[in-house]
Design a protein that fits this description.
Blueprint (H helix, E strand, L loop, with lengths): L11 E6 L7 H14 L3 E5 L2 H7 L2 E4 L26 H13 L4 E6 L1 H14 L3 E5 L15 H19 L4 E7 L6 H10 L3 E3 L6 H14 L5 E6 L6 H12 L4 E6 L11 H19 L5 E6 L2 E6 H6 L6 H10 L2
Parallel strand pairs: 1-2, 1-4, 4-5, 5-10, 6-8, 6-9, 7-8
Antiparallel strand pairs: 2-3, 10-11
Helix pairs in contact: 1-9, 2-3, 5-6, 6-11
Amino acid sequence: MGYINMEFKPKTIGVLTSGGDAPGMNAALRAVTRAAISNDIKVKAIYRGYKGLIDGEVKPFTTQDVSGIIQRGGTIIKSARCPEFTTKEGRQQAYETIQCEEIDALIVIGGDGSFTGGRLFAQEYNIPVVGIPGTIDNDLWGTDATIGYDTALNTIMHCVDTLRDTATSHERVFLVEVMGRDAGFLTLNAAIAAGAEAAIIPERATIIEQIEEAIGQGKRKSKNSSIVLVQEHAIEGGAQAVAKMMEETHPEFSTRVTILGHLQRGGSPSASDRILASRMGIAAVQALIEDQRNIMVGLQDDEIVYVPLSKAIKQKKDINADKWAAMQILSI
């Protein structure tokens, strides 16, 4: 990560969690706090994301404040959507809090929307901002994994495993709606892990073509039931809309819809997410000591990297073609 120039070391770092919560955010908060303190840097936790930054919900953190939280899901400093931060007036209020609290740099734990706001704030007020990717969607360019993705993937897998008991008892097509914002990473990988017959994602073919393929997989196996994972935004209306299309085109099949919803966000983070969050939290503090700004901490080939926020936000992360092919082979 380069030579450390202590001349730029901030005196106080502000840290917040923003957007949808993800398992492992607490582990990242813990790592940021302890890494900063070990470098004689003060830490101030900002509650409820950018909303808390606007409203001045700020608390100094010590190492004791983050004791016993690595295993907890969600985020102890809360998270919130904040439309006000999209306005210049809102960001001005946030900057006034930064000044009042004497915060020299900001670490944002969140996803695409959180980074977009952080990048704009950094440009307007010349505040060093470092992003830590905390989102179950794993849709940020420049990192192989995001905090919370592995835990969510395992949650989906266990849910589908449980659902299969019912699926094998009935002649039905079970459609399981999975989160992922506008990306199919969770859906595809969960389909492979759970042995689903198909995955319907926005990155591949048309919805009708994917439905026909899913039906075909079931027919080739001469099965009376099958499980198909549907990415929530693959089609407007999600799995319910897919079910309606299937009933119109294949009335011979009885369909049932299961929407996993916010189950996917909860739970104790996996070992993988705890380790990833810990490494990224330390690296975020290191980045600020090195006078890095407007960057995201990423992981590539198990190595920590720094990625410009502009690229992490704007460049599209592609679905792995080998994994798509693997799912099709394994579902025959």
